[in-house]
Structures are given as structure tokens and as C-alpha cells.
Amino acid sequence: MPESPALLDALFTHAPVGLTFWDVDLRYRRINEALAAINGRSVAEHVGRTPVEVLGEELGAEVEQRLERVLATGAATAEPVEVTGATPAQPGVERHWLVSYYPVVDGAGETLGVAGAVIEVTELRRVEAERGRALKDALVARAHAQAAQLRAEEAQRASERARERTEFLAEAGRRMATSMDFETTLQEVAEITVPAIADWCTITIRDAGGELRTVAAAHTDPARTSLARELADRYRPRLDDVAGAGHVITTGEPELVDDVPDALLITAARDREHLEILRGLGLRASLVVPLRTADAVIGALALAMAESGRSFDSDDASLAQGLAARAALHIRNAQLYTERSHIAKTLQAGLLPRRLPEVPHVEVAARYLAAGDQNDVGGDFYDVFPTGEEGVWAALIGDVTGKGPEAAALTSLVRHTLRTAAIRDADPIENLQVLNRAMLADTLSTRFCTVVYARVCPSPGSALVTVATGGHPPPLVLRAGGELERVDVRGSLVGGVEDPEFATRTLRLHAGDVMVLYTDGVTELRTRDPSYGDRRLAETLLGHAGRDAAEIADAVQRTAVALQSGPPRDDIALLVLRVR
Amino acid sequence: MDDVTATRLALNEARFRELNERLASDVAPLLAPAEAVAFVCECSSAACRDTVALTLDQYAVVRADDLLFAVVPGHQVPEVESVERREDTFVVVRKRRGQDVVRRSR
Predict the structure, then answer these.
(1) What is the H or E stretch that residue A114 is in?
(2) Which of residues A105 and A185 earns the better pLDDT score?
(3) Best of B5, B8, B27, B80 to disrupt the A interface by mutation (most A CBs within 10 Å)?
């Protein structure tokens, strides 16, 4: 076509890609504006120069190598090659181009030179690099997020395990707090231990005689629990055992066997049958920790894993030791409580007559109900005894302020002072004065008491009674005919002041008449009506006119207990005298 | 430290190893030569959020041995592992306990 050269010129000049032609000497012969701009030189600055002369030593040499290869082979580049480097247009700035080289041959087959097409891809490569960095950063971030998730899950599991352990210990503590009967509570503790932290659990204690006794055993299978108890009875742990509870009680050190070897069973077994039983348990791991108090090892908590296939870790060991510490404290507290209760009961018994005397012509009945903790001694008291005067008896009832050892000591002082005074003189006022002086002389005591002292002179079918009261509710008299009288007598508290005032009232009781001496625990109730207790006492007595002394005493006690909305706040003591 | 705890720690570390291996594989085409990657510290601490910077070549040496782990200096647990090698930015530890778990998890 005649217009072909013009068309080619137009294409060459205006193509959006760089186009050039080198001769066989590798000199630019023609170059379009686009490539000239890429290279940062004018078209004129290219023509007649080599790539090294235009592009510089580094990039120019690379281009020339490629041109030489095309001239040598006569073959075009199979695909565009990427050339990277800096041009004089932007020295120091790395740029990227895709370049195609192809030989230019005339009609006779002679090579005229090499043509090149250049496309700048610097921006494309920059975008790709940024995308790569972003992708890499995202992959790294994902990995770290997954790691954080794994670690958070592990922390969550650890936290959950810690929470479960705390709850377990709290529950064990609650069980142990329910009772001072530690053998029962420890059995409950053993039962909550399986399967929460072990397959088997036993608790062995060393009793006062040094003997070891397994007081709790548990497994989720009741038959296996029975087997554990049977084994504990039959092969009782011993302090010279080489392993297990006896060994731990002796050494005071925890014992963890993570993979129970048969050799250990052989060593631990007492006989052939014992060995076979032990083997049959399929024990996999065992953990025994001492029950330690401040001054002794009092037992051992033994845990074992078998059919579950579990083993113990350090957290389990810590948990077992925490449980053992609580159990040891509980046992010690229970033992101290029991000891204290025994002391209190013994002491309390010493504050009351062991048994009531036989008073001629008079039935005597007494009731006593201690309020509150059984360790609280002292408080109310009563007594009946012969005075030093022939045929004259003393009946008294009283209430020492407070509870506990000091109150008990004072109760003892009151009772024995009155007994001693009554040997010399049966006069109620004189004896209350003696008691008042004795109490004031007891410099260790700031307490006082209330007392009713009755001087009783019984005879067939009647009794002459002289009553003095030291701040105590006066006795009631229930006549055989059903009338109820309050003995009208008043007096100061005993032990409160140096010059107390006491008075007496003398009355005669006839056959069937009853006199009731009582403490305020009988009538003082948790009610807004202060006279309600007195009225109920009166009703009870009137309802039992004609009954014997014991029946009346029982009835009054029942009423007093029934009137309390809960456990009695105050001791209940009463003394009933009925003339025969 | 008991075996169960050692095993649990080893299992944790093996999980981080898996994450790092996948990370190495994923980022390999995106890296410049000798470019370091911020790998997950392969220690067993639940509180650790640290990274260890290794090139893929350095990491390849660690991952070539099942019992080697890359951790931040100071994150090694002497009860279960020994220090095999110390570098500027990381420590290579060798697992002594819990190996079975590590190997099983591979």
C-alpha cells in the first residue's frame, strides 16, 4: 500500500508504548517519543548512540547483551523480558519495563538491526509489591491471632480448672462445716472427691492411741466403695508400710506415683490374696498427702486413678494438699470441740447435784436444760440438801450472770458457799448475806447472781417453808385445791452491793401443795408481751394440779421449750417440791 | 513439673509450631531474599504474645528437627527443654519432656 510508510510512521510516533530500532552496531537509529521520555532523553539524544551511551553503564550493558543475543540468534525474545534499573531520567529510582526484542530483516534476508518494544510496568510492580506486603502482613497477623486464640483458650481452660478447684474446696469446706462429727463429714468429702479429682479416695487418721484407721472411703461404684472399706479394715494401714497412707503419715511427705508399677504392689501387699486384690484394682496412679496440723501429722488423704485412665498433675497435687489441710483442720477442730464438750459436760455436772436427796414427806423433782452451745457451762443452778439443823432442808435455785468458765467458777462458789453456810445456820437471810460477802470478796469476779433460798421443814402432811430471794423471780405455789399463789417476797441481787436487803416470807404447804422454783429461762420469751411467759407457766401449773412433782416438772419444761421459737436462749432450770 | 503438665506444655508448643509452619509456607512467595518473618513465639506460656524474627532459612533449620522450637529469649522452660542455640532475636530450645506428644502431633 502506498500509504503504508505514512501509516507506520504514525504508529511509531504515536504508539503509547516505547518503540525503537537499533542497527547492527547497536546504535539507536529510530526511537519514538514515548521511549525517549521513558529514558529521560530526547529523540535526538538517542540517534546514533549506543544503549550504554544513553542509559548508562549498568542498564545500557544489560540492553546491549540482549540485542547481541538477538543479532546472534536471529530470533526474537520468546516473551517480553523484564528489565529493571534506573534511567538518566530518574537516577537512583528503580523502574521496571517489559521489553520485546526482535530482529529486522530486509527482503533479501539480510539483518538490518533489532527493533524493540518497551512497556513501563513500574507502577504495576509497585502495586504488586504493596499488595504482597499487605498479604504477608495479613498472614503474619492471622498466625498471631490464631496463636493468641490458642493461648487464650489454654488460659481459659486453666482458669476453668482453677475455678473448679476453688469450688471443689469450697464445697468440701461447706460439708465439713455442717457438723463436728468429722467421720461423717469426711465421708461426704471423700464422696465429692470421686470422680471430680480421682477414681478412689480414702481418708485415714491416726487415733489417740497411735493406731491408723480409715474413716472414709469412696468410689463412684458403691460395690468398689465397699471393697475399699473392706480392704481398709482387713489390711489396716500401718506406720511401717513402705508406701501409701501409713508411709505418708510417718514421713509427713506427699507421695505421688504416676505409673503404679507391679513391683510396688508386690512390696505393698501383705499377702498373696492382698496382692491379687491390689492388682485387680487396676491402679494407674496414686497420690497420698498428709493431713497435717501445726504440730503433727494426724492422717493421710489418699487418691487413686484406675479405670478412668487419668493421672495426677501438679494442680491435682495442690488441690489434694488444700483439701488435706482443710480436712486436718476440721479433724483437729472436731477433736478439740469434743474434748471441750466433755470438759464442759463434766464441769456442768459438778455444778448440779448428782442426784436429788430423799426429803421426808416431800417429793422433789428438778429439770435442767442448758441453752446454746454445749460447751457453754455455768449459768443456772439448783440444789437441795439437808442443813446443819435437824430436819431442816434447803432448796435453792439461782442464776449466775454470763456463761463460760468464769460463770462456772462463780456458780460453784455460790453453791458451795450456801451449802457450807447452811451447815452452820439455816436462816435464809443470813445465808444470802454470807453469799453476798463471799461474792464481793472474790476480787476476780465482777458478776452477780440471783437466788431463791427456801428453808424447808417437812413433817407428815405439811411443810413449813421460809423463802428468801436475792433478786430472783419468787416461787409459785400451786395448792392441792387448784389455787395458784406467787410467794410475795423480794430482795437485792446477790454480789451486787455491800449492803443488800433481803426479806423472807414463811408459808405452810399442806399435802398436795406444790412449790415451784424456776429460773427466768422458763418465762422469758421472745415476745412483745412481757407477761406472756408468766401466764403460760401459770396455765401449765393450773392444768396439772394434783399431779406428782415429776409430772409437773416435765410439763413446765415442755411448755418452756415449746414457747421458744428456736433453741433456748437461756438455761431452763426448775425445782418442784410437793408435800406428800 | 509432672509429666501431664509437661505433656500439656509440649502440646501447646506443637500447636504453635503448626501455625508457624503454615505461616512460613504462605509468606514464602511474598518475601524478599533474607527478609525476616515475625513468627509466633513457640513457648508454652499462655500469656505470651511475643514474636520471634527469623528468616525462612533460619526457620527451616529449626523445623527440620521435631524437637526444636524457636522462642523469645527468656521464654524457655528449663524443666522441660534445654537451650540448643542462642541467636540475637531468638533462642532455639530442644524439648526434653513431652516428646511423644510433639511427635504424635506432627
Answers:
(1) strand A111-120
(2) A105
(3) B27
